[in-house]
Amino acid sequence: MAIDEGALRKKEHTQVCEECFGTGTKLDPVKGAIPCPCRRRDRSRKLIAAARIPRRYEKCSFANFISEAGTSQDHALGAARFWHDQYPAVDRGLLFMGPSGVGKTHLAVSIVRGLIEKGFAGLFCEFGSLLKQIQDSYNPISRTSELKVLAPVYEADVLVLDELGATVPTEWVRDTMYQIINKRYNDNKLTIFTTNYLDKGNELEERITYRLRSRLYEMCTGVVMDGEDYRRRRRPDF
Ligand SMILES: [Zn+2]
What we know:
The chain is an alpha/beta fold and 238 residues long. 46% of the residues lie in helices and 14% in strands.
């Protein structure tokens, strides 16, 4: 993406950094000239904005995920943390499966936020609204194109595709889902999925087709979450 770094910085720095006076370099008494920490904060801020994490999830982190020892949520938290700690030395994504309200999206967002702090680019997409954006781009008076909608989806180091299978699976939806997921697979990009459909009794397969389900299993490690409603027990401040 072509970002005018200089212009962005100027815009962001309504007040000049007191450590480097806006130069980006500060003098350390021992090490001499070093990059100013404000530049790292700038990068983090930009990555957070680019990740498009929805407001209701923006404070989600591993630290505020509540789970009791021995539950599937606790196991999922362990799997998510491990994956995050190993990244980029991981070769498969994650597929969080479980009913609504168990904290699947919370964990997916926690991973992305953690990776952004490590300097990687992440992107959050709710699958249904991504499909809607693609459809809207077909409208001749639309000011966007399918390519423009999909470029960040294809480029992100780590992509969260939230609510896989939630959209009524018409043929177009199935083809589009497959196209997006398969492209990331072929490009060796890692994707974290959440879905309300469990992989038993063909539930998931019916929503996304056999072809996509087998692709998912090549791309991801499945993490099943069940147990009592997580949202209900969540502290009210986030
Ligand atoms: Zn500075």
